[in-house]
């Protein structure tokens, strides 16, 4: 039985040190029926020269190779050009600084061929902090394995994505091409284009998770997607887009997305409390540990009192204000208070508050 054709699309920008290892990882795939489409997005270094050096070898390995050296238009534009030009049944988009393990494409294709009710497959991998072109097994640390940082699921994962979207194993994903033909392409107005795509596609298509290690995501000084200046404005832009298009199925989904922005902001940078609309509300700080001590200098309002789950601290004082059990806030009119989460346990705290009618950014942050 002939293997389905897989179209691998690479967007490259200023990755002269990484493009050749990336291409070699694709050449080393055990799956043979692959076409390769490469878009050099106006690189100012030797990325173009390095790709040209490899072209003849690439043409011998793949059933079709298309290389476009073009002006800078962004990764979403490149992926869309590639998808529309692709003739494969399956689509794999990939960045030019990352690596595929040899069995990656075969495992992904086989899984979707055997499970026709699934249209998107993804798997496990490693984050590697390295500027070295060569990545060896010594670089792979279990604490940076995708599945040790986030547990993944199969099936209808739309709601699940709202809980873990920035931790999606983007570097492993394989799509049936029909997903793009039926449901649209990457949004070229967004810098976090992959997160938007997964949310849109997960409304219609089932995702299949493989436990196999499929890819290595290289983290280095030029990873724009990890920069707060890129990710947070893009997520805010996604929120605006979803509000305008009535994307959220209900307020619960919208609230989940707001919490996702909150968690991402707290993970990447110090929270800008000045942007919160507290007005004349009573400010209550949840937590009296290191998170509060390290961030209290950034809080622009007077704290009225603290709450904490640690019974030992109850009715003692922190910075001159009394510490109460967490149930204390249930005695308050929630519309007249604002709860600041001064703890690392933001998921647990936000779930507790949500269950009692508090709304993120309106009643707590």
TrEMBL record:
Coiled coil: none annotated. It comes from Psychrobacillus psychrodurans. GO terms for molecular function: hexosyltransferase activity. It holds the Pfam family Glycos_transf_2. Belongs to the glycosyltransferase 2 family. InterPro entries: Glyco_trans_2-like, Nucleotide-diphossugar_trans. It comes from the Bacteria. This is Glycosyltransferase family 2 protein. Residues 7-158 form the Glycosyltransferase 2-like domain.
């Amino acid at each position: 039985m002939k293997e389905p054709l897989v179209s691998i699309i690479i967007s490259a920008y200023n990755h002269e040190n990484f493009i050749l290892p990336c291409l070699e990882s694709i050449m080393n795939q055990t799956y043979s029926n692959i076409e390769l489409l490469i878009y050099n997005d106006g690189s100012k270094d030797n990325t173009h020269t390095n790709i040209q050096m490899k072209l003849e070898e690439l043409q011998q390995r793949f059933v079709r190779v298309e290389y476009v050296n073009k002006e800078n238009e962004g990764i979403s534009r490149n992926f869309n050009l590639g998808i529309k030009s692709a003739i494969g049944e399956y689509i794999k988009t990939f960045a030019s600084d990352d690596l595929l393990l040899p069995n990656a494409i075969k495992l992904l294709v086989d899984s979707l061929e055997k499970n026709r009710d699934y249209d998107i497959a993804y798997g496990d991998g490693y984050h590697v902090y390295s500027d070295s072109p060569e990545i060896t097994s010594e670089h792979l640390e279990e604490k940076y394995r995708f599945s040790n940082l986030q547990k993944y699921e199969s099936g209808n994962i739309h709601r699940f994505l709202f809980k873990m979207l920035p931790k999606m194993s983007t570097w492993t994903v394989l799509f049936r091409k029909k997903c793009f033909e039926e449901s649209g392409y990457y949004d070229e107005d967004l810098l976090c284009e992959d997160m938007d795509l997964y949310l849109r596609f997960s409304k219609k298509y089932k995702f299949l998770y493989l436990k196999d290690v499929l890819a290595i995501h290289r983290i280095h000084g030029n990873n724009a997607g990890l920069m707060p200046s890129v990710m947070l404005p893009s997520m805010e832009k996604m929120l605006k887009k979803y509000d305008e298009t009535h994307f959220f199925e209900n307020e619960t989904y919208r609230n989940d997305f707001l919490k996702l922005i909150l968690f991402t902001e707290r993970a990447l940078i110090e929270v800008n409390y000045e942007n919160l609309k507290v007005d004349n509300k009573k400010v209550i700080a949840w937590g009296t540990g290191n998170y509060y001590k390290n961030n209290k200098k950034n809080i622009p309002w007077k704290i009225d009192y603290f709450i904490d789950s640690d019974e030992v601290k109850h009715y003692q004082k922190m910075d001159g204000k009394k510490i109460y059990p967490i149930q204390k806030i249930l005695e308050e009119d929630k519309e007249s208070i604002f709860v600041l989460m001064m703890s690392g346990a933001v998921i647990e705290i936000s779930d507790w508050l949500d269950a009692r009618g508090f709304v993120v950014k309106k009643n707590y942050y």
